[in-house]
Amino acid sequence: MGLFSSPSLPACAALESRQKPRSFIFSVLLAAAIAAAIAITIAASPTAQAAESEIQLPPVLLQMIRNKAVHDDLGLNAKQIDELRAVLQLLDGPWLRSRILPANEQQAKVASLELDLFMRLPDILSEDQFKRLKQLRRQALGTRMVLLEDVQAAAMLSDELVSKLAKRYAERDRVTSETQAELASKKISAEEAGERVAAAQAEEQNAVSELLTAEQRSRLSQLIGEPFAFNTVTRLYPSAPELLAVPSDWIKGAPVTLDDLRGKVVAVHFYAFQCINCQRNLPHYQAWHDDYADRGLVVIGIQTPETPSERDPNLVRKAAEREKIGYRILMDRESANWKAWANTMWPTVYLIDQDGLLVRWWQGEMNWQGSEGEKEMRQTIEALLARQEK
């Protein structure tokens, strides 16, 4: 499973997408437990590694550390939050772009970013804050925290025991992967998929009760500290890359940066004006602009060329006039923005919250064959605007 999977529908392919399509409903089911994440391999003991070397854990630090609820729990001050954001600015771009890497390279890249963040945090947090953060990390990992070496040592878990648990985790991963594939191919419903995943998760949790002694379970409970309400952790994705442009690249509207737009909800869509799939999405973007601009939504179109004609700014302008586009358009002649955002197909649209964080995105036609992508994206826009208006 992957953090960056999103619904993939008919589109003008640029690079072959390595992400398998899956419904947004399923991604929500997985993310609920912070399990829908780019997988990374955490080093366990040598024996456990020999038994199950492919056990994967989500990068929960990269995800949780950008959430206000976590900041509040840790008691971070304004200076610490600013320092933390500066670190995340260094890590978020590579994290986002890792989504198009082959699986093994992706895992290695995200693992290195998670470790980089972990190693930087003691310079930002106090000793007590860092201790609490490690407790939150263990809580977020759930039963799989036993794959962390410090947890194994503190709870006195043997290599043999960790190996047995790893096999149970591998079985859950197998079930989840197969369920994801069946849901993507519409062999099963979202409801059935959710039931399967929940059953597999329950089986994994039962394994801990079954295999650990009462003393070991007690030791584990002491490692997690006070329970944290992870339903308050709603930001699981990186920040949006800054727009790369000079003033002359803006063929419609005044130049702007995403940093200028902090405090506003932003929709950024990538398109090529001759792409039929892009053309079918354009009315939706314009409708968002018409319906929500007065409430603070900013829509930006980025025209990344696929054909020679799409490199001609005059033709891009004429196409925009023909489509009655009323929002800003950026000409991405050299595909610099396309690459920075790690796109793989036209069209793709992203929603960005008031703090510049990616919230969700959609690849391909939003309403292809009865799908309700535009409706779902619109609901997200309305939810973000409502939060802004509180």
From TrEMBL:
Organism of provenance: Novipirellula aureliae
A GO molecular-function annotation: antioxidant activity
Gene3D superfamilies: Glutaredoxin
Pfam families the record matches: AhpC-TSA
PROSITE patterns tied to this protein: THIOREDOXIN_2 (PS51352)
Annotated protein name in UniProt: Thiol-disulfide oxidoreductase YkuV
Domain of life from the UniProt record: Bacteria
Keywords associated with the record: Coiled coil, Oxidoreductase
Coiled-coil intervals: 190-217
Domain Thioredoxin: 234-386
SUPFAM superfamilies: Thioredoxin-like (SSF52833)
PANTHER family: PROTEIN DIPZ, THIOL:DISULFIDE INTERCHANGE PROTEIN DSBE
UniProt-listed Enzyme Commission number(s): 1.8.-.-
